[in-house]
C-alpha cells in the first residue's frame, strides 16, 4: 500500500469481484482534507478501453511523474476536496480482467453499479456522503447509464443506511462530463461548423465546409441516428462513412500534414493502435508496467497468483465490440436530458472532436430549448488561481454558461484530453462542481481557501 505524500492520506487500490467472471481494478484516493465530509467521485475514462488509473498521473490526479520516473504529489489534484475513485472499466480496460464480453454501455453500468455497492459496504463511513461521477470522452455513456440506474434504483430504496434486497441507496448529486461523446451524429454536424471557424488552423474553407455539411446532414446523419437507435442493424457502410467524415475534417486540401482529431495543433495518429503505442511510451505507462509497482498495487499475486501483465493504456480490443454493435454512434441525448431533469449538478467541458459548438448546442437543447438564447460569457480568473502571487493579470480561461444546475464550459486552448494541456483549469472546474461553487471566482487549494466549510 502506497502513501500519498500529503499527511496521513493513504490511497487504497486493488480489485473487486463484481461477479464470478469479472474483477474490476480501482485506485481510491481519500480527500486530502476532511474526507468524511467530502463527496465520493467515481472517475471513468473513455475509449472505450482507456484505463482510468492511467489518469492518476495526467496532471489532474494526485501524482506527478517525470521522465525519470520520479513521483511527486500534485498540489492541484482532483482529490483536494473529494474522495476520488479511479476504476478501470469496462472489464478488459487497464488492470480490470475477466470473461465478460461488453457490447454496450448499459451492460458496463450494471457492473459499475455492482462495484459501487461493494465499495460502500467496504467503506461504510462514506455512505452518507454525496456521490458524483466524472467522465472523460466515451466514459460519459457509462456514466449516464450508471446515473440513470442509480436514480431508478433509489426510488425503491430508503435514503438511509438500511439495505433493501442487499443494496444501499447511492446519493447521486453531481456529474461532470469532460470532452464527452454524447450525441455523435449531431456533434459531427457541428464539427463541420467548428472547423470552418476554428482559431488554430484553416483546414476547411467556408464554401467547401458548408457544402460538405449539407451533404452530411442530408445523406449520412439520418442513417447514423437509425443505426445508433438500433432501427437498422447492418451498419458497416454507415460506420465506415462516419470514420471517413471525421478524418476528412482534419485533412487540408493544400497542406501535406493531416491534423489530429484530439488536438488540431498536432499531426494525426494513423490509428487508435498507433495512439496507444504513443501512450505506452509515457512515464505513467512505464511506471504502471513495472512488475514491482504492479505487485505494490496488488495487480499481481493474490489468491489467483496472477503474474505481471502488460499494461495497455488503451486496450483497443475493448473498442471492437462497441463498434460492431453500432454502440459507438448511439445518441445519449435523451439520457442526458433525463438525468439533468433529476436536478443534480451537471457540468459539460468541451474540446475539438467533441467540439464546443456541438456541446453548446446540446446544452441549450437540454436546458432552455432551441428557441431561447444561450449566450456564454467569458471565463476570466486572476493569476492567483494558477500561482501563489496575486497581481493585476486577468487570464481568459474560456467561456461558460450556467442555467440553474447545468453548466457548459469551453476551455480555451485545450485538446481532447484537457488535463494534458490545461490540468489546473480542469481541476478548478472539478473543484467548483464538487463544492457547488459558481465559476466567477476559482476555487484554490485548501491552504489558501479560508472559507472552506464555513
Automatic annotation (TrEMBL):
Q: Name one GO cellular component term.
A: fungal-type vacuole
What processes does the entry annotate via GO biological process terms?
proteolysis
GO-annotated molecular function: serine-type carboxypeptidase activity
Listed Pfam families: Peptidase_S10 (PF00450)
Matches recorded under InterPro entries = AB_hydrolase_fold, Peptidase_S10
Quote the protein name from its UniProt record: Uncharacterized protein
The lineage, from the top, is:
Eukaryota, Fungi, Dikarya, Ascomycota, Pezizomycotina
Gene3D superfamilies of this UniProt entry?
alpha/beta hydrolase (3.40.50.1820)
Keywords annotated in UniProt? Carboxypeptidase, Glycoprotein, Hydrolase, Protease
Q: Which family does it belong to?
A: Belongs to the peptidase S10 family.
